[in-house]
Design goal:
7 helices, alpha+beta, two-stranded antiparallel sheet
């Protein structure tokens, strides 16, 4: 009788020498490989999430509730210029000599600022606040305001009579002329990551992402901020005289000069 030799079963593709040595069957080895592959994919995904989170957190700064959060798309000036205080304002170089707080009635009594014979800037709204941080975004700028001893912020928003332009004038009440000059200088950099918030009034909004110009003027212990733009946010053309617009909105500074006269007398 011929004895038939039993054919040897070929080794499974899933037999790994190490696992076989540990006593795992081919079926068990296959299951372990599948589980290991899934775990590897999950670990890779978790690693990518951690990397992305790390990148995002490295570019952000936590902000206290006292400062207005700088959300994406905050309006800010594309161009900026700063000027130091003229010598004629030396009598109000220190707030101790000009201690009376300004009021909304004092600063925004003039409702129309004349641009030319055909146009004017009409006051859409004005407000004065004792807490400066809430009127600005950008933590570095808010910190600079605190260091300068800001105790008041006034904002007046205007719309041109032909409705083509918007402007906002902001006045800051600071500790002294030194603090005012330092803030104006710092704004040359700080305005790229922080600026005054627009006073929301009908017809006086600044277009987020639109073109605008800003300026800072040291005025004794005060700082005036000028912010101007076309109402539609487009860039100015040769027909748009934004310089005249900036000079016009600075008419809101007249009460500051009256304070100088009140200290020095009319003949000074």
């Amino acid at each position: 009788m011929t004895t038939r030799k039993r054919r040897r079963t070929p080794p499974s593709d899933w037999q790994l020498p190490v696992l076989t040595g540990w006593g795992f069957t081919p079926k068990q080895q296959r299951l372990l490989v599948v589980i290991g592959s899934i775990a590897g994919v999950l670990l890779l995904a978790l690693g990518m999430v951690a990397i992305v989170a790390s990148i995002n957190s490295s570019g952000s700064t936590s902000r206290p509730v006292s400062a207005a959060a700088p959300g994406f798309g905050q309006a800010m000036p594309e161009e900026f210029h700063g000027w130091q205080s003229p010598k004629g304002l030396e009598p109000i170089a220190d707030r101790a000599k000009d201690a009376k707080p300004f009021t909304e009635k004092e600063l925004f009594a003039q409702k129309n600022l004349v641009i030319d014979k055909k146009r004017s800037l009409k006051l859409a709204g004005g407000a004065v606040a004792a807490e400066c941080a809430s009127s600005f975004w950008g933590q570095a700028l808010v910190d600079a305001l605190g260091a300068a001893g800001c105790t008041q912020v006034a904002r007046g928003v205007y719309q041109s009579s032909d409705r083509r332009y918007v402007a906002q004038y902001t006045l800051l009440n600071l500790r002294d002329a030194k603090a005012a000059g330092e803030l104006v200088t710092a704004l040359g950099t700080l305005h790229r990551g922080g600026w005054v918030l627009p006073l929301e009034q009908a017809g006086g909004a600044f277009v987020s992402g639109g073109y605008s110009q800003g300026g800072a003027y040291a005025l004794g212990h005060y700082v005036g901020l000028v912010w101007i733009a076309k109402a539609d946010g487009s860039e100015p053309t040769a027909k748009d005289d934004l310089t005249a617009l900036a000079l016009t909105v600075r008419g809101a500074e007249k009460p500051i000069y009256r304070r100088v006269v009140a200290i020095t007398g009319p003949g000074a």
